[in-house]
Specification:
Length: 98
């Protein structure tokens, strides 16, 4: 398993859509647990006001990431292998989980 960064651009138009995708991601992730594990995500506001995300996943390969994205309705071709991690501080409060 390797660590990946996935950037999803302009996927959602509302917090409700994002929450529904998050729930679906948990369900599909459980089905794929031998190939993929969701670590963390940050929802971001895109320039056009839509919602995108930056996600951290552990996965067997890029194809597992692509399959997961397709199954949850949030595909991405912007998938990068993490070369290293430098955690200086925990996420500040409040960071809301959606």
């Amino acid at each position: 398993m390797e660590l990946y960064i996935i950037r999803r651009h302009r996927i959602w138009s509302s917090e409700d859509e994002l929450a529904a995708t998050n729930q679906k991601s948990l369900e599909v992730g459980e089905e794929m647990k031998d190939r993929l594990r969701w670590i963390r995500s940050y929802a971001v506001t895109e320039e056009d006001g839509r919602i995108g995300s930056v996600c951290i996943y552990e996965a067997s390969d890029r194809e597992a990431i692509r399959e997961h994205g397709q199954r949850i309705g949030a595909p991405s071709d912007d998938i990068r292998v993490v070369r290293g991690t430098a955690v200086k501080r925990d996420d500040p409060e409040p960071v809301s989980a959606v």
